[in-house]
């Protein structure tokens, strides 16, 4: 007797399970959004190497003044001149206006001893988030 009919090679079971998990997870994680092309809001930084806009969040300010702000992280921004550091990163508050250069750097003061805390290249602004209307703002460094 000769050899029987040849079967097609089967994929290993772990590979099929991994593929099924990737497909299932991809359906839940995926999201999309539309950019408004008619009413653009473009903001620019003075320092092109700052990675301005690396992270962005929309925040609603309710104290002192009612307004919406874009929070823009610039993790490679130059430090405020203090004699201790050169590059710390920064977070900017940008009003929703047509002006490209009206962002203000958030005043974040570190009152610690620079000899004990590494703040040079700390990438402040790598993540920014808003807690919502009248909430707090979170900015992180690595």
Automatic annotation (TrEMBL):
Range of residues in the leader sequence: 1-32
This protein's GO CC annotations: external side of plasma membrane; integrin complex
Protein name (database record): Integrin subunit alpha 3
GO terms assigned for molecular function: integrin binding
Top-level taxonomic group: Eukaryota
Keywords assigned: Signal
Ranges: FG-GAP repeats: 38-103
Coiled-coil intervals, chain numbering: none
Gene designation: ITGA3
């Amino acid at each position: 007797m000769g050899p029987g009919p040849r079967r097609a090679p089967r994929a290993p079971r772990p590979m099929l399970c991994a593929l099924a998990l990737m497909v299932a997870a991809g359906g839940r994680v995926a999201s999309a959004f539309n950019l408004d092309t008619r009413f653009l809001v473009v903001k620019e930084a003075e320092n092109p190497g700052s990675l301005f806009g690396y992270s962005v969040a929309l925040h609603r300010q309710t104290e002192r003044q009612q307004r919406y702000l874009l929070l823009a992280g610039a993790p490679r921004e130059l430090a405020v001149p203090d004699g201790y550091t050169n590059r710390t990163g920064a977070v900017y508050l940008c009003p929703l206006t047509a002006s490209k250069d009206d962002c203000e750097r958030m005043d974040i003061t570190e009152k610690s001893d620079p000899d004990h805390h590494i703040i040079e290249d700390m990438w402040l602004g790598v993540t920014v988030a808003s807690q919502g209307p009248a909430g707090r703002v979170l900015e992180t460094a690595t």
